[in-house]
Write a structure and sequence with these properties.
- The protein has a domain of about 120 residues.
- It contains three helices and eight strands, in the order ααββαββββββ.
- This is Malate dehydrogenase.
- It comes from Neocucurbitaria cava.
Length: about 210
């Protein structure tokens, strides 16, 4: 008897339960801070490289634009009336990709404020003709000069270059590096007032467009 009463009660309640309206659906809830943090930022505007000695090969991908700040280095010969000979460069590198994406027309000098951030690497020479780039996150790139043109922005600035990565000594995936938008760095006309073998350093800045 008790079983029949229980079944009768279920029979009365079940239709009411099934007929009950669904709760109202409000607007979607806002993402939690942790969810919002996972949302990727909008992609930066694509960067357009300044005119270069040779057009970029289509299979190459821009991975970094670095601001280089340092010195172009020269040495005097025994003929002090002659211009000193180039022996390389030494520069700290700073990530300029975001700054140029935000303002594609930014000049090299105006990028100087990013030097307040941490350096991402260094540019130096292994010998007088072998430039090297040691960049955090990319690795080491030993390069060779492939082309050069006089700076379109004035002969008082060092030349624009196209550098190609060499298999020997390179641990990165970098294929080419372009030195562009140079500022300063040109050697003096002679070594008057100096001594033979003296090293002459000339401040310079440049943008290094790095492709892999």
């Amino acid at each position: 008897m008790h079983a029949s009463i229980l079944l009768s009660a279920i029979a009365l309640v079940l239709p009411l339960t099934l007929a009950a309206p669904a709760p109202p659906r409000g607007p979607p809830s806002s993402p939690t801070p942790s969810e919002a943090a996972k949302t990727p930022p909008p992609p930066p505007r694509p960067l357009r490289q300044p005119p270069a000695p040779t057009p970029i090969q289509q299979q190459h991908r821009l991975v970094l634009v670095a601001l280089g700040t340092g010195t172009q280095n020269y040495t005097c010969s025994t003929d002090l009336t002659a211009a000193p000979a180039a022996i390389g460069a030494l520069a700290q590198l700073f990530n300029a990709s975001c700054a140029l994406s935000s303002d594609p027309t930014a000049s090299t000098q105006s990028l100087g404020s990013i030097e307040e951030s941490a350096s991402i690497g260094a540019h130096f020479f292994l010998d007088s003709t072998t430039p090297d780039f040691d960049i955090t996150g990319l690795g080491n790139t030993e390069a060779k000069k492939a082309e050069e043109i006089v700076s379109p922005q004035g002969s008082e600035n060092v030349k624009w270059l196209r550098l190609t990565a060499q298999a020997t000594g390179t641990t990165s995936s970098v294929k080419e590096i372009y030195r562009l938008n140079t500022v300063g760095g040109v050697a003096p006309a002679n070594c008057a007032g100096r001594t033979a073998g003296e090293v002459v350093t000339v401040d310079y800045q440049a943008q290094y467009w790095v492709y892999a």
